[in-house]
Design a protein that fits this description.
Blueprint (H helix, E strand, L loop, with lengths): L3 H18 L10 H4 L3 H16 L3 H22 L1 E3 L4 E2 L11 E3 L4 E2 L4 E2 L4 E3 L12 E2 L4 E2 L4 E3 L3 E2 L4 E2 L4 E2 L8 E3 L4 E4 L10 H5 L1
Length: 201
């Protein structure tokens, strides 16, 4: 269930990943939008997602959606990052660099994902009924230029290499590279995903 409290919690975790990676205390997450333009599309996505699914008053909902649509388009132009409001993204997403990132509708991304420049999540585009979307587990690292296509399932702790094209499921803790992507080892994303709660565990 999408609630305002959950949305705020997720956004706090998103911004804290940036603060933690700079070695700053959690309170400094408030300043991350000034340091990282890549947080802008994440912030807009969180608000847009909440309004789209949780606001029920028709008139208020339509007004807010129209405003957020315009803001999202401006942010898309400024950052070249497009996150569809219908995507489902858990807490702690980290986007370190600007540039050509597309997260299509109904994509599912688990906790503490690291998404790099040039990454695309989308359907196969084979016909108008090609609705299958990627489903990522927790702590997934997606390298620059990677493409994840169709209704594939990516397990927890997976690392997807730069420029890989993923068209088949990837098991947990695997490293996948190539076109099409193939599993080369079981090291996965260990050591590549960083967040504050991880240190506390």
């Amino acid at each position: 269930m999408i609630t305002l409290a959950r949305t705020i919690h997720n956004l706090v975790e998103d911004l804290d990943v940036y603060a933690y990676r700079r070695g700053l205390p959690k309170i400094c997450l408030l300043f991350m939008p000034l340091l990282y333009p890549t947080t802008w599309p994440v912030i807009v996505y969180r608000v847009h997602h909440y309004v789209f699914f949780a606001v029920k008053m028709p008139f208020v909902r339509q007004i807010l959606l129209a405003i957020l649509f315009c803001i999202a388009r401006v942010i898309n132009v400024l950052t070249s990052i497009e996150i569809n409001r219908a995507a489902v993204i858990d807490q702690g997403i980290f986007i370190p660099h600007l540039g050509n990132i597309v997260v299509a509708h109904n994509t599912v991304i688990g906790k503490y994902a690291s998404i790099h420049q040039g990454v695309t999540f989308g359907n196969e585009g084979r016909d108008t009924n090609a609705t299958g979307m990627p489903n990522l587990g927790d702590s997934v690292y997606v390298g620059a230029g990677a493409k994840i296509v169709g209704g594939v399932k990516i397990g927890n702790g997976v690392m997807i290499g730069c420029n890989a094209v993923v068209v088949k499921d990837i098991p947990e803790n695997a490293t996948a590279v190539g076109v099409p992507a193939r599993v080369i080892n079981s090291k996965g994303s260990k050591g590549c995903i960083h967040y504050r709660k991880q240190k506390e565990q």
